[in-house]
Amino acid sequence: MSIDASTDIDTDTSAAIPCIELKALSGIPTIPLLGGAELNAFVDLASGPTSDCKLNLNLLIQLGPLFASMACLFKILNVISKIKDFASAVPDPTKLATSVPKLLDAIAQLEGCIPALQIPNLIAMLKHILLLIINILLCFLTQVDSILKFKLSINMDGTDDNPVLKDTLICASNSADAAMSNAMSSLKPLQSLMMIIGIIAGLTGQSLDLPDFSAIAGGANDIEKTVSSIKSAVQGLKGIVDSLPG
Fold first, then answer.
1. DSSP string for residues in the chain
2. CA distances from residue 112 to 15, 35, 108 in whole angstroms, order as listed
3. How far is residue 8 CA from its own chain's centroid?
4. Which among 224, 189, 218 has a CA at the least distance from the CA of 43?
5. What is the pTM for the complete model shown?
6. Among residues of the chain, what percentage have pLDDT more than 90?
7. Beta bridge mates, 31
8. Is beta strand 30-32 parallel, antiparallel or unpaired with respect to 38-40?
9. I need a surface site. Which of 27, 125, 131, 209 has the fewest CB within 10 A?
10. Measured between alpha carbons, how far is 214 from 192 in angstroms, rounded to an integer?
């Protein structure tokens, strides 16, 4: 089939441009925990474009392991409750006879939770958490590098006479900016995790020089500085991992 010069071809450049823009996240969902800590959703850079729905699902998935890990905490609260019952029963010999066995039983259940008996396991857990954070940071650096290269590939020169191409490139640029903003958001929950790591390290007698991710995330407007800080954090964490036994 051939098309001759007299054939009318639709060259209307005012047609709607098919563009699905990546939306910036409305925020990182959190759940406050006992003791003042927070459980934060994590931006999963490996699963493609992030959405608020994905973040909420991510946080929900964390609840199961969280409740399992809080078994010792609930046992400690149980001991505190039994101590309170014991203290209130002291003046009453009848109540004392039933409260003492309950208190001893609650304390016995804590034997597997005493840090002094769990130091090797705590160090192993600490080491693996740090390795996980290192891998997440390396993933972050790869993602940021990819976004920066994509941004550099967008060339708006010569698009003034081609509104279709211009609008397409603007859409791509806006999506890249949103992707960078979302990547930066992935740094914020790490500081809460650093606080927990510091507590674990204290129980094992380790003194760790941990990076301050709240300061790093606070300088997110300077991409070059942020990338440099992350690279330094990775090297520092690798040094800590190498220093831990096991």
1. ----TTS-----TTSPP---PPPPPS---EEE-GGG-EEE----GGGSS--HHHHHHHHHHHHHHHHHHTHHHHHHHHHHHHHHHHHHHTT-HHHHHHHHHHHHHHHHTTGGG-HHHHHHHHHHHHHHHHHHHHHHHHHHHHHHHHHHHHHHH---TT-TT-HHHHHHHHHHHHHHHHHHHHHHHTTTTHHHHHHHHHHHHHHTT-------HHHHHHTTT-HHHHHHHHHHHHHHHHHHHHHS--
2. 68, 21, 9
3. 56
4. 189
5. 0.62
6. 1
7. 39
8. antiparallel
9. 209
10. 9
The residue length of the chain stands at 246
> Which tens digits make up the pLDDT trace of 108-166?
776 666 566 567 777 887 888 888 888 888 888 888 899 989 888 888 888 888 888 88
Q: Which two tokens stand for residue 112?
A: 């597997």
d(CA 103, CA 6): 97
Rounded CA separation 98/68 (Å): 30
Express each pLDDT in 150-194 by its tens digit: 888 888 888 888 888 888 889 988 998 888 888 888 787 787 778
Q: For the chain, how far is it from start to end, CA to CA, in angstroms?
A: 73
Return the structure tokens found at 58. 């991510």
